[in-house]
Amino acid sequence: MTDLATGSMQDQITARLTTALSPTQLTVVNESELHAGHMGDDGTGETHFRVEVETPRFEGLTRVARQRLVNQALADLLSTHIHALAIKARAPGE
Predict the structure, then answer these.
(1) 16: how many CB neighbours lie within 10 A of its CB?
(2) 48-54: strand order across its sheet
(3) Considering only Cβ atoms within 10 Å of each terminal Cβ, which end of the chain, N or C, has fewer?
(4) Is 26 exposed, middle or buried, given 0-12, 13-18 or 19+ CB atoms closer than 10 A?
């Protein structure tokens, strides 16, 4: 895993999901500016994200199971740095 001091949160999310899920498509969008001044905004500009991920690992899994895999890959970041994470998870062809 990457060190928190060696890249943006967006880059770290991308690296972790790439390693954990081997996605065929991955988009990570920092939406923190939309939440400036709201609860969970710590002033870093890196607290709210949207993830769209497609991977064969999701085939046959429920929506909840897919989201759990994403959350597991980002567990420590979710507990310390990421306030909100919107997830769209799909298998290829969906």
Answers:
(1) 20
(2) 25-30, 48-54, 84-90
(3) C
(4) middle
**69 Cβ neighbours under 8 A, 6+ residues apart:** 20, 21, 57, 58, 61, 89
The three-state secondary structure class of 81 is coil
Q: What is the pLDDT along the chain (94 residues), one digit of tens a residue?
A: 334 445 689 999 999 999 999 999 999 999 876 655 565 555 556 788 999 999 999 999 999 999 999 999 999 999 988 888 999 999 999 9
- Asked if 30 contacts 45 with a C-beta cutoff of 8 angstroms, the reply is yes
Residues in contact with 86: Cβ distance below 8 Å, sequence separation at least 6, in sequence order: 31, 49, 50, 51
